[in-house]
Design a protein that fits this description.
Largest interface: A-B, 26 and 23 residues
Order of helices and strands of chain A: EHEEHEHHEHHEEHEHEEEHHHEEHHHH
Structural class of chain B: mainly alpha
Helix content of chain B: over 70%
Distance between the termini of chain A: 49 Å
Largest sheet of chain A: 7 strands, antiparallel
Structural class of chain A: alpha+beta
Number of strands of chain B: 0
Order of helices and strands of chain B: HHHHHHHHHHHHHHHHH
Distance between the termini of chain B: 48 Å
Oligomer: heterodimer
Shape of chain B: globular
Strand content of chain B: under 5%
Amino acid sequence: MPELAFKSSAPLTFGVELELMLVNTRDFNLAPDADDLLRRTTRVAPQGELKPELTQSMIEINTSVHEAYTPLVTELRATRDVLAGHARKMNVALAGGGTHPFQKWSDRKIYPNERFLSVSEKYGFLAKQFTVFGQHVHIGCANADDAIYLTHALIRYVPHLIALAASSPFYQGVDTAFDSSRLSIVNAFPLSGTMPLVRSWSEFNRYYDRMVDLGIVKSMKDFYWDVRPKPEYGTVEIRVCDTPLTVDRAAQIAAFSQALARWLWEERPVEVDRDLYLTHSYNRFQACRHGFSGTLVDAKRNDARPLADDLRETLDVIAPHAQMLHSEPALDALRATIDDGNDATWLRHTFAETGTLTDVVRRQAELWARA
Amino acid sequence: MPDFLPAWPPAPNSFLIFALLLLAGLIGGRLAAMTRVLPAITGYIAAGFLLGPGVLDWLDPATLGDARLLAEFSIGLIVFDLGRRLDLGWAGHDRWLLPMGLAESALSFFAMFALLRYAGTPMLEAAVAAMVGVATAPAVVLLVANELKAEGPVTRRMLWHVALNNIVAAIGVTLLLPFIEASQAGTGLNPIARALWLIGGSFLLGYVAFLVMVLLGRWLGKSPVPQFVVAVSMIVATVGAAQLGRLSVLLALLVLGVCARNLDRKHRLIDVEFGRAAQLFFVALFVLTGTTLSPGQFGAAAWIGLGFVVVRVVGKAVGLYAFAWPAHISMRQAGTLALALTPMAGLAIGMTRPIYDVAPEFGARLTAIVVSGVAILHLLGPIATRFALIRAGEGEPGARD
């Protein structure tokens, strides 16, 4: 079998994929209007790319590749404005958030293309339950071995990213007590989790070939890992973030990931070994369940500390890199979020204030369209 | 016979009639569902037709008595719900929406009017009949949409058009009333004042009912059960007040629904679902509708009824196709939308009642003109809407079985 080719890309370039929910403006339940929105945007296309997703109430924005935070956020805002205009004409709205707070998963309709129908066939009810909305960040890598290192090293910071982006406290009409309930849905898939502890691209290829030979996967798309190399783009893809409630937050999280990657590559502070993965599921759960208040266990340092403290420390340590990348405003905004609360906090406050999840989604949609 | 025993033969009371309507509807609906082609509504109507004067003659207007109240109540729920689908803000964002709705209404009106004139119907009667024909049956489209759990762009537009063409038809018929009245000898009433009373009064009633609803909503908070009771009681009160004031029940309830959707700025009201309890009344409504059909309606006048039905659909289709490109809807969507708007039940929703008030003979002639069209559409309409929504990929057969 030929080796999986890793396409080289300019290091530290980055781009964002955002999965968004389409809701009706009557009761703010999900609306199966992805096809119509896609058809309309062929006439007045936004920058980047617009794609269907697994079910018909989802749509995905892919940005262009960027070098810096400011052009990324500018593009995201412009795309949002174009899409919001189309949505208004269709009498639907778009919203951020990792889950729709009260939709019934069984009511969803699979988007009728070959790939999604095959996912539905393969995974049964999990496919419809996968109507959850995530942000993926791609970081450009010069070569495959750099990508393997970054894929591992970012594992240490998965809880930080989860807490910063968490926006799915409500699912199927109830408060789950999680800040990010979305990742619990992802966990149900057999190929979720993390990349195995391979040290090089050639070792990765041996693993990949074996999985293909065994008939478990057909392509890299079949791995639903938290962080995965994306050889055809020449990137590492971070997949643990909920779609934030605003495009600005999405861009800030992308900028954080970029600065983090720069620091990880330049200083190689994370040692890739079994200890790194020993605590991963626990730390990931803590971040999903408690957000910034979660505990972060570090097997190397042999200690446990509040995630918020480790996140502040991380922001300090990557600050010089953010300066080089011109993304300090993004990191300042994230630092404020640790004190003010993440999107999950905003959603819970909104529910406490309005009393219904319909009103919560209405406010989510309003926030997405204007912020 | 001992006096503690009931009279023989026992006369059925309203409860037994209601039970009969429900059971007959249940059986009819189940049989329709088993065909995998027919919507449940067709089964309800067929059951009513069998029980009615046309076939078995178990249920006639005299026997039905109070059961008619159920029909009024069901229509109240449906029309209010329809009003809630009319988002006026949408017409602001999509500037082609209103022109498209008006074009579809106007073209179907002119098509039906031209056909009736061609068939020799007098001018005024043709105009009123065509105006009644503009309205798509809200009960049929909403129930078929609910049965299929339909949701999506075609369903949303369909309900918007139904709400709009009902408003157009109700106002149009009301505006024609003075002419009907003027054609009657020796009425002595001011026909313009009557039209103003009907339209203005109905709008005012709907608006006042909305204000009361919001006040109660604010006081009760956003609990679903109290809000449900508020909605139902305000609908019933509006039906009652409209009948008392000889206003248009249809317009008043539409206005109530439209206000609830568009003027509740602080979102005091919950979008309550009427759910399974309401389903009981809808079954009874359509079985009752079936009892009004008779085989004769499909006989001699059937060709004009059929023509009426065909030109009506064609008129709507032309209006929708003409605006499809600027409105960013596909030709396929325009086609399914036209088909979905097939059901017509102008008589069933009481649109002609004010005409009977001012000119009973005219009303009877009008009924004779449109009754066969309505009868045909009672059979074809639900099937067409069901087919259209499934074809649009927005409804699933058996979704709410």
